[in-house]
Design goal:
Blueprint lengths: L1 E2 L5 E2 L2 H8 L9 H8 L2 E6 L4 E3 L8 E7 L2 E6 L5 E7 L4 E2 L1 H6 L6 E4 L3 E7 H10 L1 H25 L17 H4 L12
Antiparallel strand pairs: 1-2, 3-10, 4-9, 5-8, 5-10, 6-7, 6-9
Helix pairs in contact: 1-2, 4-5
């Protein structure tokens, strides 16, 4: 076994092979992937391990799910746990916190015994600055994921109509919005 720059004993080829087949790292030049792998270690976390706590200010590393799964959740005002997302192999925990330098937005727990490729947070941020495709990947995938989930939640939840104040999304019919007769527009316009 070898020791990488994080001090964890790992087989040197494991993080490099995982990064080479995992987006966005697989889109980077091979030498860059090898350098990034030098800042990685392999971690095992048993089922139920808390990886991150909401409000945690000390997110130090990017965790890439190698095997197993992670549950992201939040607690509502009454203490009820609210599921945000499930993450499987290839997904990352801590990317937005590291990129924005902010506290954790959610609690993250392992759903089952899981292995992670742990990348030093400073190395990840440096990589994202040198190769914007890395930052763009995590910021875009996060945005798409939450917009899709929010839209699905809106479709599942019936919003009561309130006519006396501002109109909530989807509570007004097209007939109520249309103030003018329909107009046909030429295909060549």
């Amino acid at each position: 076994m070898m020791r990488n720059q994080t001090g964890n004993p790992v087989y040197a080829e494991l993080p490099a092979a995982f990064l080479a087949r995992t987006l966005p790292f697989s889109d980077l030049p091979p030498g860059v992937v090898e350098d990034a792998a030098g800042h990685c270690g392999v971690d095992f976390c048993p089922k139920g391990t808390r990886l991150m706590a909401r409000g945690m200010a000390d997110v130090r590393d990017l965790l890439l799910v190698q095997s197993g799964g992670v549950k992201l959740c939040d607690r509502s005002g009454n203490g009820q746990e609210r599921l945000i997302d499930f993450l499987g192999p290839g997904a990352a925990v801590g990317a937005t916190e590291l990129l924005y330098g902010k506290t954790a937005d959610f609690d993250a727990y392992t759903l089952e015994d899981s292995f992670f490729i742990r990348m030093d947070g400073r190395a990840f941020v440096h990589l994202a600055r040198e190769y914007p495709i890395v930052a763009r990947f995590y910021l875009e995938i996060l945005g798409r994921s939450f917009v899709d989930k929010a839209f699905a939640e809106l479709l599942r939840t019936k919003v009561p109509q309130r006519r006396e104040s501002a109109q909530p999304l989807f509570s007004v019919t097209v007939g109520e919005l249309a103030r003018f007769p329909a107009v046909a527009i030429d295909g060549g316009a």
